[in-house]
C-alpha cells in the first residue's frame, strides 16, 4: 500500500511539473533566429517567446547602422564633428568591443565599417586590387580613433567618414540579452539561436544537456560534432559560399581591418564562451588571426574553447575540448 501511494505521488508530481519544449523560427536583425523555451504549455511558451522577440527588436533599434534613427547612426553621422551621448547600454557594448580590439591587437574592430568596399563577394572581383588601393581602403579604420568619455557617456569617432558597425558582435549580444531576460522571468531552460550564434541555459526536459551540432561548412548536411552544452554560448562563424578565389587562393568574407586584405586559410570557426557576445567577437578575430595564432590565443583564455575547420577540410581544436562522434568528410 505504501508503495502504491509512493507511485501515485510520483506520477502526480511528474504530471504537475510537466514541461514542454517549444520553438519559434523567425527573421530578426536581418537573420534567422530560432528561439526555444521550456515551459508548462504552448501558451506560456509563446508568451515568453514574444518577450524575447521584443527584446531582440529593441536591441536592433539601438545598434543597427542601417536604421538612420538609431543611436549608432547618430554616432556615425557625427564622425569628425562631435561626441554623441548614448544610452549606457550602447556605451558599455562599445567599451567591451574596444577591449576585444585591444586584446586581439586590432584583429577585431567595430570601425571595420569605415572600410571602402573594394572586395565584393558576388563573383565580380576577378583580380587582386592594387596594393595601394587595399591600403587606402582601411585608412579610416582604427579602434584607436573611437574616443569614449565615461562621465559624459559619449562616443566620438575622430575621423570624418568613420563608422562603427556591430555585424560581428550584435547577434551574439542579442542572444545573451534575450536569454538574460527570459531567465529573469523564470524560464528554466532554453536556447536563443541567432543564425549559429547561440546561448543556452538549463537542460532539456529529460534532464540532459542541450546538444549543439557543429556542421562542417564544406558539407552542411553533415554534423561532425555533437557537443553537450549548458549555461554556455557557442558561436559558429563561417561562410563557405562567400569567398573570392584569386591565383588559386581562397579569401573569406572577413577582412583584416589592419591591412585591408581578406582573411584566408579558415572556412569555419566555432567558439565556446560564457557569453555569445564574446564568442561572436572571438570567432571573427580567429578568422583574421589564422589557425595557428588563433589556437594559441584561445588556449590562453580561461573557459573559452574553439574548433576550426581550415580550407583543406582539416579540423583543429583547442586543448580542453573533446570532440566525440567526429565524422570526417
Ligand atoms: P556571420 O554572423 O555572418 O557569421 P560574423 O560574426 O563572422 O558573421 O561577422 C562577420 C561580419 O562582421 C561581417 O559581415 C562584417 O559586418 C563584420 N566584420 C568583418 N570583419 C570584421 C573585423 N575584423 N572586426 C569586426 N567586424 C568585422
Ligand atoms: Mg562574429
UniProtKB/TrEMBL annotation:
Listed A to Z, the keywords are: FAD, Flavoprotein, Lipoprotein, Magnesium, Metal-binding, Transferase
GO molecular function terms listed in the Swiss-Prot or TrEMBL record: metal ion binding; transferase activity
Cofactors named for this entry: Mg(2+); Mn(2+)
Pfam families, sorted: ApbE (PF02424)
- In which domain of life is the source organism classified? Bacteria
Q: How is the cofactor bound?
A: Magnesium. Can also use manganese.
UniProt: Mg(2+) binding residues: 168, 280, 284
Listed EC numbers? 2.7.1.180
What is catalysed by this protein?
L-threonyl-[protein] + FAD = FMN-L-threonyl-[protein] + AMP + H(+)
The UniProt family comment states:
Belongs to the ApbE family.
This chain belongs to the protein called FAD:protein FMN transferase
Its lineage reads:
Bacteria, Pseudomonadati, Bacteroidota, Flavobacteriia, Flavobacteriales
Amino acid at each position: 500500500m505504501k508503495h502504491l501511494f509512493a507511485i501515485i505521488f510520483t506520477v502526480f508530481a511528474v504530471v504537475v511539473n510537466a514541461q514542454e519544449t517549444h520553438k519559434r523560427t523567425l527573421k530578426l536583425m536581418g537573420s534567422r533566429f530560432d528561439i526555444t523555451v521550456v515551459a508548462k504549455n504552448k501558451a506560456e511558451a509563446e508568451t515568453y517567446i514574444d518577450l524575447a522577440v521584443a527584446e531582440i527588436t529593441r536591441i536592433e533599434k539601438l545598434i543597427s547602422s542601417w536604421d538612420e534613427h538609431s543611436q549608432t547612426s547618430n554616432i556615425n553621422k557625427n564622425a569628425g564633428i562631435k561626441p554623441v551621448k548614448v544610452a549606457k547600454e550602447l556605451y558599455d557594448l562599445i567599451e567591451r568591443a574596444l577591449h576585444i580590439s585591444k586584446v586581439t591587437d586590432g584583429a577585431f574592430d567595430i570601425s571595420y565599417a569605415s572600410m571602402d568596399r573594394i572586395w565584393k563577394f558576388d563573383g565580380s572581383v576577378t583580380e587582386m586590387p592594387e596594393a595601394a588601393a587595399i591600403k587606402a581602403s582601411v585608412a579610416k579604420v582604427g579602434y584607436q580613433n573611437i574616443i569614449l568619455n565615461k562621465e559624459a557617456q559619449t562616443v566620438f569617432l575622430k575621423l570624418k567618414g568613420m563608422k562603427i558597425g556591430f555585424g560581428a558582435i550584435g547577434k551574439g549580444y542579442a542572444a545573451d540579452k534575450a536569454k538574460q531576460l527570459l531567465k529573469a522571468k523564470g524560464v528554466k531552460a532554453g536556447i536563443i539561436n541567432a543564425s549559429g550564434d547561440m546561448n543556452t541555459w538549463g537542460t532539456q526536459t529529460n534532464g540532459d544537456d542541450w546538444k549543439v551540432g557543429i556542421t562542417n561548412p564544406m558539407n552542411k548536411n553533415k554534423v561532425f560534432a555533437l557537443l553537450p552544452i549548458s549555461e554556455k554560448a557557442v558561436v559558429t562563424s563561417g561562410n563557405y559560399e562567400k569567398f573570392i578565389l584569386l591565383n588559386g587562393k581562397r579569401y573569406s568574407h572577413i577582412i583584416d581591418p589592419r591591412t585591408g586584405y581578406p582573411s584566408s586559410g579558415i572556412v569555419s570557426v566555432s567558439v565556446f564562451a560564457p557569453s555569445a557576445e564574446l564568442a561572436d567577437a572571438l570567432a571573427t578575430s580567429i578568422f583574421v588571426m589564422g589557425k595557428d595564432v588563433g589556437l594559441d590565443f584561445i588556449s590562453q583564455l580561461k573557459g573559452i574553447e574553439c574548433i576550426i575547420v581550415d580550407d583543406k577540410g582539416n579540423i583543429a581544436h583547442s586543448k580542453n575540448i573533446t570532440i566525440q562522434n567526429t565524422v570526417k568528410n
